[in-house]
Amino acid sequence: MALVGSILGLVAGDGSAALLGFLAGALLGWQWGRIRALGRRLDAVEARLRALRSSQVARQGAQPVAEAAAPGAASPKAPVATSDAGIPPAHEAGSGSPARHAEVNPAAREAGCVDSTGMESAPELLESVVAPTSPARTEPIRAMPPAAVSNARVQTGVPAGPSPLEHGLQRVRAWFFSGNVPVKIGMLVLLFGVAAALKYSIDAGWVSLPLPLRLALIAAGGVAAVLWGWRNRIERPAFGLSLQGGGIGILLLTTFAAYRLYALLPAGVAFSLVLVLVAGAAMLAVLQNAVALAVPGFLGGYLAPVLLSTGSGSHVVLFSYYALLNLAVFAIAWVRHWRALNLIGFAFTFLIGLGWGMRYYRPEHFTTVEPFLILFFGFYVAIAALHALRAPGRLRGLVDGPIVFGTPLLAFGLQAGMLHDQPMRLAWSAMAVAVIYAGLAGWLLRRRDMALIGQSFGILAAGFATLAIPLAFSSRWTAITWALEGAALVWLGLRQRRALPQASGLALQILAGAACFISLFDGGWDAAAGEWPVLNGHALAVSLLAASAFATSWLYERAGAGRLAVWPGFLVGTAWWHLAGAREIDQHAHGGGLLSTGAGTPLAWLAFAALTLLAMGGLRHLLRWPRLGWNVLLALALSAALALIGQHEAALALHWPQGTLWLAWVAAALAGLALLRRPAQRGLGVGHLLFLATLALVYGGALAQVARAAALGEDWVFALGLAPLIALALLTWRLPALGAFPLAREFPGYARIWFALSGIVLALAWAQSLLLSGDTAPLPFLPLVNPSELLQAIGLIVAARWAWQRVPEPAPALAAGAALLVLSLAGLRAVHHFAGLAWNPMILNHGVAQTTLTVLWSILGVGAWLLGSRRQRWSLWLAGAITMGLVLLKLVLVDRQYVGNIAGIVSFMAVGLLLVLVGRIAPTPPRHEPRQESRP
């Protein structure tokens, strides 16, 4: 119902009134749904009470029946006739006899729970269960028909509550068929009959009395009915009340006819008479505690201006008249708990006021209308409080929803209609309403039995304070206030374990986000002239939005709520935080301000990542909220991505003052990782790996950029770029206390992942280094002692040792193949530098390159032959043999084309001599080697 009402209110409102229509519709829809739910609950309670009373009567009636059936028992007396519920009917002398009213609970009569017919209402039934009853009520029932006993026993379930239509029909049926039914129906028929007889006699010319005299006689009959009913108020209360109500109705109709139909009374006299009649009806109703008498009198009083008006009267007179009527309603509410009368006054006052305003209001009427609107608002706020204070028994402190929530909505709606073009005055009006409700809430919450209505007034105070903000401030400040207020309402709802404040708080935060986005599209993204980075309105607003979302998530997690309640606030807060950073970087990273790096956006984002690490890590520790650690991990991931994106700015990591940002980031990352240790953060290892990777990327890129700036060769650039990663791998391997700081204790748990990833990167880098040309400028090239070939040799030794420990069988062959590749490329690199050939695949088309490879492979093969033969290692000798086989194959397939020149001749001669020498001095070793010599 709240959703439907909000949609209808949003559709009904236009322009500046759309928000007001949305809120008003939501509250009215929610209240209507609540009223329907309470009605169903009340019907269920009444049905349950009837079932309990029936079962009690069945138990009381079953005992005499059992005694009568026992042997030797005296003859039972004739049973007394009972009604369907098992309760003796009233004496036939009339429902208003003393015997009938002796059955009514005196406490219920004092509490106003007995209607004009003497029937007890649902509140009285509730009181009859928990409060002592009168002696007449507790008199035992002597007998009961067996069928009634059976019916009472089987009635153990609670019937479903009737629909609103059925409930209304039940009320009408109860009015006509309870109490003194003949008098009620007779008075209605008499009124219509008298009116019809008079009209017919006049039309037929039977009565020739003057019109004023005829009206006076009718009025005298009404006065006589009132007096006669007053005289019967004690002996026959229902009869007397019916006569009094009918007499007052005759007087009101007569006054209306004399003024409107026949123009026999001036307007002032007619209104005065109506006022006197209403006052008399109110006095009679209060004296006899009969709301049924007050209702028709006040209905006539509120309808009188509508029926008597010609459209040319003064609105001051109209509202003054209504003020007197509402004063009477307020006075009655002070001493009686009559909800129907309160609702009649509330509905007629504001609806007729709304109708007059839509048709006749002009801006010049404000000074004469505003005092009455304030007065009517004050009346019904006070009446709502009195209704809760005067309620009997357990109903004490309950909220009369239509008046409690309808009064501020209708009154403020009328105020908004008069001040639609003056938002500041409307904002002050909303704040004044908020102050009034806050004061009432503070007063009522001190009383234990008034907690519900006190909380309702507190919610209204918060709502109108919230409504005042967008009327007085920009959308940005509206977002701030709503977001903080929403977090406060969530805290209040969780503390009181109430869903409504929580839902209101979440709705306010959603509205705050919408207001913030509106401000962004309304020029809020662009920085104003002279705006400071970080210390500006936009950064403050969005940061507070993030704080309120984080606070909501933290409150739900502390309260033990599920993930669906915790994660949304955390994700929204993270999004707001990064939105604030994106705007500051976009607007201030290039303008020479605090965030300006002089080199572009990535380094500014890295500064924001450092701030995120410090803020989130510190708050995680202070609030003892591990979930914030995910933002630390997100900042580390962002830093790693930025290190890849901003490689062209990496040299700034070693420059002043931009290099201080990198140092600050490292310090912030170490602090964040240290704070994630206790309690241990999920994904902590991932964060540490991201940190190590970012260090390697940033400072590797910085060293590479410095080398390029110094005009060093590509081999130096490549080696310096890998140096940080190599250093980190060695430190974490050999000195983990230093290399894995501050997570040295946790590092063994994910060290394998780090070494695997770094090993893969280094292996790829090693493969890439094979393609380097050996540019060692400004130093001359030296084979095997240049940066790239030293790195290749070191990498090959480390990889061979690692492989020999884990896969001993294929490791020698793999190491031999890799070594052959490295030395072959080293030979080609030497050819490139000393022969002046271009470093590209076409170098293999030259005879010098092919001869160099042939001689080199032959030396390697012969060396392996000799070493394998001397040490009696079959595998090593076999490797040499395979190498020499490759050499022979190469001579046949490749080098034979160069036989006509010196290079080809040298190749064949060198290979032939080596083979002869090996065959002489290196015989074949045994195939099976001792196991203890299988590893060097």
Automatic annotation (TrEMBL):
The chain crosses the membrane at residues 6-30, 181-200, 212-230, 237-259, 265-284, 291-310, 316-335, 340-360, 372-389, 401-420, 426-445, 452-471, 477-494, 506-525, 537-557, 564-582, 594-616, 628-647, 659-676, 683-704, 716-733, 753-772, 784-804, 811-831, 843-867, 874-893, 899-922. InterPro entries: DUF2339_TM (IPR019286), UCP035905_mem (IPR014600). It holds the Pfam family DUF2339. Keywords: Membrane, Transmembrane, Transmembrane helix. Residues 60-107 are annotated as: Disordered. Residues 60-81 have a biased composition (Low complexity). The keyword Manganese does not apply. The keyword Transmembrane helix applies. This is DUF2339 domain-containing protein. It comes from Denitratimonas tolerans.
